[in-house]
Amino acid sequence: MINIDKSWQPFLEGEFNKPYFNDLNSFLNTEYKNHTCFPPESDVFNAFNHCEFDKLKVVIIGQDPYHGVGQANGLCFSVNDGIAHPPSLKNIFKEIEQDLGILYPKSGNLMRWADQGVFLLNATLTVRAHEAGSHQNKGWEQFTDEVIKIINEYKENVIFLLWGGFAKRKAKLIDTNKHYILETGHPSPLSANRGYWFGNKQFSKTNFLLVQDGLEPLAW
User: Fold this and answer.
1) I need a surface site. Which of 7, 112, 158, 216 has the fewest CB within 10 A?
2) Are the beta carbons of 67 and 127 closer than 8 angstroms?
3) Do residues 91 and 198 lie in contact, with contact meaning Cβ atoms separated by under 8 Å?
4) 73-85: pLDDT as tens digits
5) Residue in 5, 23, 64, 175 annotated catalytic
6) In the record, which residues are listed under signal peptide (predicted)?
7) Taking Cα atoms as reference points, which of 85, 174, 78 lies closest to residue 125?
8) What is the pTM of this model?
9) Catalytic residue flag (residue 64)
């Protein structure tokens, strides 16, 4: 189950050997053997494998993978090429269009972001098909909180985009003397229709901070 880029291994090796992670791994082996689960086993650590630790510049925190067939690809909010865009992703692209004038894309695959240093981390990395939240409270949250703590400790000037109440609760893990936090509402229709998403300019603000720190802006 553990297939993770070598740049992350020195930081996470200890986590993989802890009792809770062994329990999580046993649970996942049973789940994937007996049920349809997403993303495919080979894609579970895609957030790490498409964003090397040294190149990480921005963190976006999601909650759960998509649980529909063919959707989840291991990156939060992202779907595979050719898959219809879920409502939250549609609103993300609409805001980028308003904010930066970038035309709404055909593909909802955000690997192009990850390859530029955007770490697209779900708090829970797996899910059973058609059962939202089915792999919560099995150990993933402890693991991904530890990942955020590691980024906080060993990196500087990372931009954390915290969208919605769940992501905002992770702010306590982040040292704002070392890093940036940009908060707004969740891109879900419920939040967006209440005026908590559109007009947040998270994407232009992120690029402004990157350029300010002498880094390349992102091609969102």
Assistant:
1) 216
2) yes
3) yes
4) 999 999 999 999 9
5) 64
6) none
7) 78
8) 0.96
9) yes
